[in-house]
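Repro:
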Amino acid sequence: MMKSLKEQGKYHQLQVVFESLIRDGHKPSVECYTVLLSGMIAQKRIESAQDILERMETEGVRPDAISFNIIINGFCHEGNMIGAQRVFQQMKDKGCTPTTSTYNTLIKGYGLIGKPEEAMQLLFQMASGTEAKANLRTYNMLINAWCKKNCLEEGWDVIGMMRSHGISPDAVSFNTLAKAYADQGNVSKAESVIQQMQNAYLRPNEYTYGIVISGLCAQGRIERALALAERMNSQGVPLNIVIFNTLIKGYANLLQPSGIDKVLQLLETYGLKPDVQSFSIIMNAWSSSGLVDEAKAILQRMQQAQVKPDGTTYAILAKGYVRSQKPAEAEALIQEMASQGLLPNVVMFTTVISGWCSAARMDDALRVYKSMLNYNVTPNLKTFQTLIWGFSEAKQPHRAEEIFRQMKEQGILPDHKTKELIIEAWRGVGCSEETTGNLTR
């Protein structure tokens, strides 16, 4: 029952059940404590989890490696490696032998905070011990740690180390290195990883090819990316919608409709259909370039293909209308969304509000703001900053102050930018530097 409650995320009920066991005179097993600890870590209640660990010993239940590992993992996810090492030492002091999972958790933690050197020290500790032995996961996390720090030579060194210990690298090992090269813009090196995988008798998968294809598209080398996709298919690795969407994005970024159509035709050749992401990518490219009529045409084409637009699709089009100084058309999309059974979100409303603010139509901006509240959509910091900026541009600092107060009343704390917007609003009407300094205190 406790395990089921944890899986459902019902952590409060989980603790109530645990306490009722003790209250009724039962002695919870180490497994029960483990489930409780997992729930507390999921809630980021690390201190409470440590209290439970001490309580286990008081109740005569000896914590096992899993119990300690759960808390170590909690500290690692928070980037608190001092806390993780403290529990690790406590584990050893209590006579509980660290497992491979213990070391792997710590290695992953050091990787997350960009300290692969410390992670390597743990590998050496494992090598000198007799209980915990490094496995494939250990080495893959070390490769990832070095790649995150852009130390790819060290990543390859780990490949060599694992081979010397009789562990063969897998697709994850090579994919990690390929992605690191692609992220650096060294796509040729990323592509060479495919050959190295084949030399190791490993079959590159769709993720491997996807990394290289994405890197090529980012460099505008779409024809080369398309050729690699065809090679991928010829080698028995099935093309998927993610690959096609990457190619579509490549052509869309170059504003090449003919290239997009070529990919869409190829997609259908392979028995696939464009999805909402496919159309949204094209719309975003046209909207960002001020080609809002073309973006609208894509929405219509999308509907004809019986692909239902989502909130992101409409937000992209609204952004295009706002950039084209057509806030009324952007606002009309809110009603269109509602007719499609979609609830406009805070991004959509804020985009439309910004359009009216840019047009110096503050009454319309406020009307949309009130409509937003009627839809039970909660404004965020960006919403209020947009309204404050709009009133500042309209030389109405008192109205900007009023929005500022409403924001604080709704529990949204102003940041430095918000305060600067208020100060600029008053400066815009000739308020002195000394006076503006006192406005937002």
